[in-house]
Design brief:
399 residues, alpha/beta, Aspartate Aminotransferase, domain 2, Aspartate Aminotransferase, domain 1, 2 domains, 7-stranded mixed β-sheet, 38% helix, globular, binds pyridoxal-5'-phosphate
């Protein structure tokens, strides 16, 4: 099988009921059985090709999960109703009261809030660390630690988790390595470095249309089956099921992901270099000034570039707000959270997606209140887009 994530998806065969080149959409909540025995059996164990109830599994969701599992080179996948559902189900499945997690401190705001505010209610403690500091990770491992959690490329500072090194710690202490790869599908293949669980918010690049919220958990067959176990699975019992009609539409969008990622990356590289040349402090793993530029070159599938997210520091919250409003007026894109859309999206993480992280902790992470994060779009004329950004920067006296 090809080692390329896009080619792996393209090798997938899924025909429609009448030989359609798209698989049929299974628009149903429940499934008929021709024998009593078969139904009883399905309550006991998963039977390949047999379906029971759509909260458990639906053929359309199965197709989508299979495509993403192929992309991530993991055995199986469970699609979920959101990225947060993927994260919370995974953690609830792996951890029990008394367990501990070591997590990167620069994670998605919702993830941070879940670890910090929600899990303690169930007696699960999270130690937040600077994920680029391998010694710091080691120092937080105890005999209660169950998992190390990180984002391959972090939000919003674009720090890169050295998955090879983190895997070594996991091996030493028998821990699960859980990686959120939302920022870098195809660009990073966490399974190659031994990630046990690879999570995505499909809401972002993978769907790419900003028209729905969805998620996925890619892992071993055993883990995914445990997630949807009728008697004890978090995905089955907490019930974050994705609707099959939506799963079908995401499956169609995934087919262009490789082309989109290349274009997002190409455009982001262009903008990052241009902004840096104007004298701004720019965060982008494709820049030589990025502290982990060498690691990015080792770890990334460079055919897909360095992904499409970058950030720059506007100094203060006021300047950040001013320049973003101007960029919206100048049609650079939309002032909106989220990422992976065909248009450029921008927001100031300190006051939106990362606002769950207390201000003093943001400061310690190196997150300036004037940070502006851009998810660069698929613009065909990126030079024009840059000229517009430049005009806005000049009008706000940032250059
Ligand atoms: C958006 C996002 C999530 C949460 O996903 P939802 O689909 O919004 O629930 C998790 N991790 C990262 C890195 C994200 O960007």
């Amino acid at each position: 099988m090809s080692q390329d994530p896009a080619s792996r998806i393209q090798d997938m065969l899924a025909f429609g009921e009448f030989g359609g080149v798209n698989p049929s959409i299974e628009d149903t909540s429940t499934f008929t059985f021709l024998s009593v025995d078969k139904m009883e059996e399905l309550f006991e164990r998963e039977v390949e090709g047999c379906f029971l109830y759509s909260r458990h599994m639906n053929p359309t969701n199965h197709y989508l999960g299979s495509a993403i599992a192929l992309m991530e080179d993991k055995e199986y996948a469970q699609v979920t109703a959101s990225g947060m559902a993927a994260i919370t189900s995974t953690i609830m499945q792996i951890c029990k009261a008394g367990d501990e997690i070591v997590s990167s401190r620069t994670v998605y705001g919702g993830t941070y809030a879940f670890f910090k505010n929600f899990l303690p209610k169930f007696g699960i403690k999270t130690h937040f660390v600077n994920i680029v500091d391998i010694e710091a990770i080691k120092s937080k491992i105890t005999d209660k630690t169950k998992a190390i959690y990180c984002e391959s490329v972090s939000n919003p500072l674009l720090e890169i988790a050295d998955l090879k090194e983190i895997r070594k710690i996991c091996d030493e202490h028998n821990l699960q390595l859980i990686v959120d790869n939302t920022f870098s599908p195809m660009v990073v293949s966490p399974a190659k470095y031994g990630a046990d669980v690879v999570i995505h918010s499909l809401t972002k690049y993978i769907n790419g249309s900003s028209d729905c919220v969805a998620g996925v958990i890619c892992a071993s067959r055993d883990f995914v089956l445990s997630l949807r176990d009728v008697h004890s699975g978090a995905a089955m019992l907490l019930g974050p099921v994705l609707d099959s009609i939506r799963a079908a539409s995401i499956l169609k969008n995934i087919r262009t992901l490789h082309i989109r990622m290349k274009q997002h990356s190409k455009n982001a590289m262009y903008i990052a270099e241009k902004l840096e040349a104007l004298g701004l402090n720019v965060f982008y793993p494709g820049l030589k000034s990025h502290p982990q530029y060498n690691l990015a070159n080792e770890m990334f599938n460079l055919e897909y570039g360095y992904s499409g997210i970058l950030a720059f520091d506007a100094g203060t919250e006021e300047k950040a707000n001013e320049v973003m409003m101007k960029m919206q007026e100048e049609l650079v894109g939309y002032f909106a959270v989220s990422l992976g859309f065909y248009k450029t999206l921008f927001s100031s993480p300190g006051h939106s997606t990362s606002s769950e992280i207390p201000e003093d902790e943001q400061k310690e992470m190196g997150m300036s209140p004037g940070l502006v994060r851009l998810s660069i779009g698929l613009d065909n004329d990126i030079e024009r887009s840059f000229e517009r950004i430049k005009k806005c920067l000049s009008e706000t006296e940032l250059i």
